[in-house]
Amino acid sequence: MQVKSNMPQYKMVVMSDPVEGREKDYNQWYQEVHLPELVALEGIRSARRLRRVRTLGERETYSNMVIYEIEADDIDAVLDNLVSVAMDGQITMSDAIDRKNAHAAIYEELGPEVSEP
Questions:
Q1: Positive or negative CA dihedral for 41, 42, 48, 52?
Q2: pLDDT 10s digit of each residue in the chain, 117 long?
Q3: CB atoms < 10 A from the CB of 96, how many?
Q4: 100-116 burial string, b = 16+ CB within 10 Å, else e?
Q5: Which residues pair with 9 in a beta bridge?
Q6: How far is CA 5 from the centre of its chain?
Q7: Global pTM?
Q8: Residue 89: CB atoms within 10 Å
Q9: CB under 8 Å, gap of 24 or more: what pairs does 53-60 form?
Q10: DSSP secondary structure string for all residues of the chain
C-alpha cells in the first residue's frame, strides 16, 4: 500500500489529438518519450494515458487525455520548471501532436478518493 505524503496533491490534465494520419507516431512518442521525460521532473510522480471510447452528450471532445499526478508544496515551482525545461529544449516534442488544439489544466485534490465499500 502506497502512503500519501502531507504535501498538496494535484492532477495535470492534458487533452490532445494526433495530427491526422500520425496516430502511430503520436502514441509512440507520448508513451515512450514524453511521459518518461515529464515523470523524471521534480514533483511529477506519475502519468497515465487514456483514449476516448465514448462521448456523453452531443459535443465531440479530444481523443486522448493524460493525467499527471503531481505532489508539491509549491505547484508554481513545478510548473515553472516544466516550462523552463521545455523552453530550453530538454523536453522532446513531436510534430505528430496537434499542438494548436491541445489543452492543459491543473487541478488540486479537494478530498480523499471515494471507492466502493
A1: negative
A2: 555 678 899 999 999 999 999 999 999 999 999 999 999 999 999 999 999 998 888 887 899 999 999 999 999 999 999 999 999 999 999 999 999 999 999 999 998 889 999
A3: 18
A4: eeeeeeeeeeeeeeeee
A5: 71
A6: 21
A7: 0.90
A8: 8
A9: none
A10: -PPP-SS-EEEEEEEE-BPTT-HHHHHHHIIIIIHHHHHTSTTEEEEEEEE----SSSS---SEEEEEEEE-S-HHHHHHHHHHHHHTT-S---TTB-GGG-EEEEEE--S------
Tell me phi and psi for residue 76, to 5 degrees.
-65, -35
Please name which of 37, 106, 45, 36 lies closest in space to residue 76, comparing C-alpha atoms: 106
Q: Would you state the pLDDT for residue 24?
A: 98
Contact (Cβ atoms closer than 8 angstroms) between residue 36 and residue 24: no
Apex CA 23: angle with CA 17 and CA 24, to 5°? 145
**Single-letter amino acid, residue 1:** M
C-alpha torsion sign, points 86, 12, 58, 96: positive
